[in-house]
Amino acid sequence: FQPWPQELVENAYFVEGGDTDISKLQGTVVRFEIPASQPITQGALVKPGDRGFLAAALGPGMRAVTVPVSTASAVAGFVFPGDRIDLVLTQSVNGGGDGPPLRVSETILRNLRVLATDQRTSNDTDENGKTVVHTYSNVTLEVTPKIAEKIAVAQTVGTLSLSLRSIADNATDLERALASGSIKIPDDATPE
């Protein structure tokens, strides 16, 4: 909060000591860029579940892609919005002999962020604050446009499964990619 001329305060502003409960703003995202020192209005924020939340939560240039899953292929419902997953493709290929086709699986994409499960963009909790596990039939992922194309093709080739990643893996993978030179860092990049 910061001082603001009383005659310029509008009803849409968050006012200290008023009806504003800062804890209820946790998990919201902004709809558009807000310049420094500009008041944040209630209309500038989107809560999980609100219309437009998913589009506001996407990183610049990223796309949301929905993948159908079953309970078995989605880690029994233990994948939640915000988690990172690997995408595994299972398909039938001819073995070259007289026998039946072989079933093979391979990880086709790694470290994708889960945006939503079915139409939930946040984790539900019970009265004790524990996360409630739901089964779901769709998972929405944040991907680049090129990866969105790969997923569209993979869905026609076979079935997709999710493989939940450890939180600790993400930093290690980034460091490995930076060291190998597979990720290019712009000269004007900040540490973030």
Describe it.
The chain has helices at 53-57, 145-157, 167-180; strands at 29-30, 45-46, 63-68, 84-93, 102-117, 138-143, 159-164. With 192 residues, it is of the alpha+beta class. Strands 3-6-5-4-7 form a five-stranded antiparallel sheet.
Please outline the helices and strands:
Layout: E1 29-30, E2 45-46, H1 53-57, E3 63-68, E4 84-93, E5 102-117, E6 138-143, H2 145-157, E7 159-164, H3 167-180
Antiparallel strand pairs: 1-2, 3-6, 4-5, 4-7, 5-6
List keywords for this structure.
two-stranded antiparallel ribbon, 7 strands
Got a strand count? Answer: 7
Quote the distance from N terminus to C terminus.
Answer: 25 Å
How would you sum up the global shape? elongated
Which class of secondary structure composition applies to the elements?
Answer: alpha+beta
Number of helices: 3
Order of helices and strands: EEHEEEEHEH
Which strand-content bin applies to the residues? 25-35%
Strand ordering within the main sheet: 3-6-5-4-7
State Rg. 21 Å
Mean pLDDT: 79
